[in-house]
Amino acid sequence: MNEQELKKMLEDTGALLSGHFLLSSGLHSDKYVQCAKLLQYPHLAQIAGTKLAEKIKNSGFQLPEIVASPAIGGIVIGQEVARSLGVKHIFVEKDNTGKPCLRRGFYVNKGEHFVIVEDVVTTGKSTGEVFSLLKSLGAEPTMVVSIIDRSGDNELPFKAPFISLLKLELNTYSLQDCPLCKNKIPLEKPGSRKQI
Hints:
With about 200 residues, this protein is α/β, with parallel strands linked by helices. The protein has helices at about 5-10, 35-40, 40-55, 75-85, 125-135, 180; strands at about 15-20, 30-35, 65-70, 90-95, 100, 115-120, 140-150, 160-165, 170-175. Helix 4 (about 75-85) links the parallel strand 3 and strand 4 (about 90-95).
């Protein structure tokens, strides 16, 4: 699967949307990638997970003992990558105060190597939360992988190699500079993260 094939899969499944969207980062965009629309098809999730696992295996970096993902967007693709690598998969969620944590009996051992798997990285906020939490518990980061990299010029809040299946250059705007707001185009919030 090359980038054009993945882009076509995103379009065919309705995962690449056009409109006026509020991103979990607080930024606005005229495009939104809803990877859940792609990942709802298990055979497509398996293809994407296998391709990401191949990139990890061929990266030259330490292979992980753990695949970790932020809840909720990274869970399905993280599971597929872990399955393809033959390692365990855990996910990070929020406690009732909004602080990232491991729940459900998940744990990491000191010195274990982990790869973070995401569906889409824009500002890297969710990824950075997983990265910081697992490092604070003594695990060692190897790399970050995602289906889509739409980070553009954003400085990402993690220090690890980052690989994706597809890099998308999509417009993002602050609330103050958003031409879609100025044109009174209705704002949608399709993501899973609560706005603060």
